[in-house]
Predict the 3D structure of the following.
Amino acid sequence: MSDAAQQIQAPQPEGFQQKATRFLYRNPAGRLLLRALVCPGVSKAAGAFLDTRLSKPLVNPFIRANDIDISQFEGVPFGTFNDCFSRIIKPELRPIDDDPRALVSPADSRLTVLPITAHGRMVLKGTAYTAATLLRDAVLAKRYEDGYAFIFRLSVDDYHRYCFPASGVVGTPKRIEGVLHTVSPIANEEMPIYKQNTREYVELDTEAFGQLILMEVGALLVGRIVNHPLSGAVEKGQEKGYFQYGGSTVVVLAQKDALTVDETLLEASERGEETRVLYGQRVAYSRNL
């Protein structure tokens, strides 16, 4: 059994963030407010402020509220809130599984693994998606039928940098403009957030897994998905980019028969449970090597 499969997240008491999300998505007054909040302009304005030194007073309360051990990170003390939010962890604290057969988690996150049906359909906590609506490319989506979708959901307190889950050659990135809902499970129960939110994706051609889709999904108050301008060959564990403020999601799509997923991960996902994984940790094995 993998380390990832041993860290299934037990239900936690509902905190302020969950209560606020429930109000926004399930209360009529909250839904009116939500219409304004999900506009990209709101996130852009918030992000611009959090880039300035005026946001520095928010740093220490954020660190305390989320119990962040700043001794694990470089660049301390932080000059702005976004410096803190997109902080860089010391490399030795996130070792990359160097087995060439291993697909690794691109981020510290809560993982759900979904089978993609022969018609490209997948169901996340009761909400149905298709690969075609997610990618907005029916031809590309066809390649991933009968494969797997790995949904790596980042919370606001997670490390918000992400890496390539395998070595390979990157294709041309595509950006899909949209709104910016929170990626909370509560929001997903109310609307198909992953096909409405702004997102970016690229195809990665690998020896171990064939072609993979790597997608970053923006979220409420995350106006910026910051991908490094990379092309050609990349290495597993190489930083691909980072998110700025808020919770966010990385999605990896794998083709049919490309890999083997730990049964415990699949069983947890079928029960609607997320599994805690770390940047660089193995989540599946290649069937090609």
